[in-house]
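Why run this: before we spend reagent on co-expression, it is cheaper to look at a predicted model of the complex and decide which construct boundaries make sense. The entries below are exactly what would go into the expression plan.
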Amino acid sequence: MTFLGIPPFPEAARTALGDTQLRHNLAHATATIRGKRAAVVAEVPEWEELRLAGAAIKDNTLRHLDEHLVRLERSLTERGVTVHWATDAAEACDTIGRIARSHGITEVVKVKSMATQEIGLNEALAAQGVTAWETDLAELIVQLGDDLPSHILVPAIHRNRAEIREIFRARMDTAGPELTDEPADLAAAARRHLRQKFLSAKMAVSGANFAVADSGTLVVVESEGNGRMCLTLPEVLVSVVGIEKVVPTWSDLDVFLQLLPRSSTGERMNPYTSTWSGVTAGDGPQEMHVILLDNGRTRALADEIGRQALRCIRCSACLNVCPVYERTGGHAYGSVYPGPIGAILNPLLNGVGADAQTDSLPYASSLCGACFDACPVRIDIPEVLVHLRAEVVDARRGARPHAEAVAMKAAAWTLGKSGRLRFAQRVSALFSRLGRRRLPGGRRAIARLPWPGSLWTDARDLPAPPRESFRRWWQRHERS
Amino acid sequence: MRVALLVTCINDTLFPETGKAVVRLLRRLGVEVEFPEAQTCCAQPMVNTGYLDEAVPVVRAFTRAFDGYDAIVTPSGSCAGSVRHQHAIVARRGGDERLGAASSKVFELSEFLVDVLGVEDVGAYFPHRVVYHPTCHSLRMLRVGDRPLRLLRAVRGIDLAELPAAEECCGFGGTFAAKNADTSVAMGADKARHVRGTGAEVVVAGDNSCLMHIGGLLSRQRSGVRVMHLADVLAATEEDR
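The model came back. Tokens follow.
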């Protein structure tokens, strides 16, 4: 699920920040979605109650996840669905490849699905001689551009329409040289391309936004109708469902189908909501499989503070409000789950302490808290980020001490007693004549420091230390 | 009521004028604030970077220093938020629940003025064009709402302009400013651009840490725009002129 070769966040972010076209595309796109979301959320006076309800349903379900999953398996089986359990990505991909091969199928169509992105299904199927076609427009743009998704809802958010036209012209047989970059033109070309795939594919792969345990119903929420085509036309349907997607009853959907579209696309209701409960003779796919995917979820569930991340309904509201994501884009996070939710979900699913890229993610945030306010299921992302930072630090304890750890230990020692802080302040006062620049108001400022001070002064002036600390002033003037 | 000033380590060490301004302001409003000299830091830099073991002795020093006070007032939304929401985490790590004892007694300056003292007009005079930047922790952790703006609107002579995208983070973020310096600066550059677009002479906020970042960029750009803490503005009177 981690993109190969992506460096730790600070380095990947630096590259992304230098791409002015990317910055422009992202600022424009996220501002548009932010505005739409804010408007439709403001229409709902009981929004906070809905958030609380969504969080409570998810928490209660996760508390008894084992029972709900067994119930789901039973309901699905009774309705003619074959249920598979997959511990990890390889097991899930192998199962899907085996199903395709058992029918001699070499082409499958896909509904947009985060779970299949997470397990790297397209690449795994290709290795088994099966071609997977993305049918969501944005996923198609990413696939044809040999690109990586950079947003949960809008995987090609980093592309503008001129770039999309070039990708279509180069890679799509239904797009001629006369193709313009008008959205309607681009959509029409994609439509012609996809129609061939829908009508010829014998097997579809989907995810699911929700899986209802008591009725054995899977739910896919979408905008383009490509999902509906995939879910109804092929003979074989395989759905990859993360184990945290289960909800106990049909009526629980009431809450989530209000929360999701408003948070996600900024719409009151999404255009297509498909629900299906097993095989119906003579109508739709006649062979159905559900793969219940763990792939790190039970690890996340075991984390008392981190487990709230499993409430996530993949709306991407946190990405659109995140000032870090808006500037770096999704690729810098090195995962199909970018942005604030990715910064906690990837370490929770992968575990911390194993690789530097994953360990850099909890630090990819200024802890501004905008993500928590936007989250429809009240995941306290800043709380989890701080918790995971402690796990990263704890995982490194005992290893060779690095500069940051030494600095933190020194700071903690100095701040452990006021006498030590007083001494440090007297030393820093010796540097009060440092700096030739003057800040507005007259104070001296330092424009250049050696590392690690250069991390600050490369772009920012730093006020020179004052001649006297507050505590010294207090002792001289106020202490009676 | 015994009121203690939590000046914060950054104000103590780098911005002593803000501490003095709080003392002057509160005295003018009839509150004799004490400065417990055993105080050092709220431990937020350690907690937010993941160094919980290192935070334990710092929070222990904090708890001892502020023992016996009825209220703790601080010119920092971020440090108030750290005491209120993070000391419990450190207490858990240290296996000592007394380390969370100060959490319910701490007030950020605008909360203390508006909620405890019940004042909005503090008798200040500041004849300058000003924009207010609501810092993230005061806004989303403490939920101070428009209290700082209500205090600023009552200042005589002030020309308070509206800051575009005011509620967006400036990019400081504590150790984020160094660990992810490029992203931090990119965020700050947008904040500085919005500030400069208003024609303000002064950017005001409730946290000198964020202002050090915003001001550092504004200074590097030679913008001539000054940064000032809310306390410094509220403490200013006509006699200061």
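Chain B has a mean pLDDT of 97. The radius of gyration of chain B is 17 Å. Bring this page to Monday's planning discussion.
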